[in-house]
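Subject: Interface between my chains keeps coming out wrong

I've been trying for a while to get a sensible model of this assembly. When I model each chain on its own everything looks fine, but I need the whole thing in one frame so I can look at the contacts. Pasting all components below, labels as-is. Any help appreciated, I'm running out of ideas.
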Amino acid sequence: MSRPEPAAPAGFDEPVFAEPWQAEAFAMTVALHDKGLFSWGEWAEALSAEVKKPGAASDGQDYYEHWLAALEKLLSTKGVAGKGDVDALAAAWERAAHATPHGKPILLENDPRPAEGRVGPTEGRIGPTG
Amino acid sequence: MSHDHDHDNELDPFAARVRALETILTEKGLIDPAAIDVIVDTYETKIGPRNGARVVAKAWADAGFAAWLKRDATAAIESLSYAGRQGEHMQAVFNSEETHNLVVCTLCSCYPWSVLGLPPVWYKAPPYRSRAVIDPRGVLEEFGLALPGTTKIRVWDSTAELRYLVVPMRPGGTEGWSEERLADLVSRDAMIGTALAREPA
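Reply #2:
Try treating it as a single job with all components included. I did that and got this:
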């Protein structure tokens, strides 16, 4: 039997968030729960489904990647943001970043191909449910 | 991430997806970017294990509060204005010579945010989540905590609805100390159960 992965930290504690996007993903989840979009039980279930997938890093460094995936799935299930919408807008943000001179704030308006950032009006969105 | 040129910006794919979600959610009126910044600031700088240390110190100094904390931790903690925002219930588990308590979330990473802030990386990582239940004594030894063989270890598995706070034993030589001074002896790890309260210097 192989030696188990150590459970204790190797050195000093890391900061709560390693990168700004992790803090933003966390805060969006808290804000959406406050808004009543989902219960915390629903959230824990979504997050747990992601973190228990095989291949999770044993040092926990990919934790917020799972967090983001769980948030995307939940928002898709709730009909708030479909994967197609998010894919297209994320690509638009990457193009916008690329087109923004270094040192300037990255704005979505800087996307040189804005039409591609928005998919058709129906995909990923739900109509009124009455 | 590698840069093959230095004149423009890059967003890594995760950052770009987060921005995309923010754009959609803001347009739909579901989030307010200013409120997001406030939440980040709160969890980065305002809520942390200092809150929990004050709860523990008060329990050490005030037997009435300790009894309340044991009976109804949710209300006792709320009385100090550390309210959870996920509607979770709190349970305080008290260490003794006979029993040491250890908290884990095997499911994901449920944690008493209102009193401890956000969990450390190791708490969220698979080795701790899987091994704390199977081999708590071995895990504690990795944290440098060797308990006497006669001390039982009780492991509490957190859920979205119920989170645990370990109340470590009060170190000797602290009689008459103020709550503030006592709180300095209570580390985050002591309230998870992977450490004991610090001995007075």
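Reply #3:
Confirming on my end. The longest helix of chain A spans residues 83-99.
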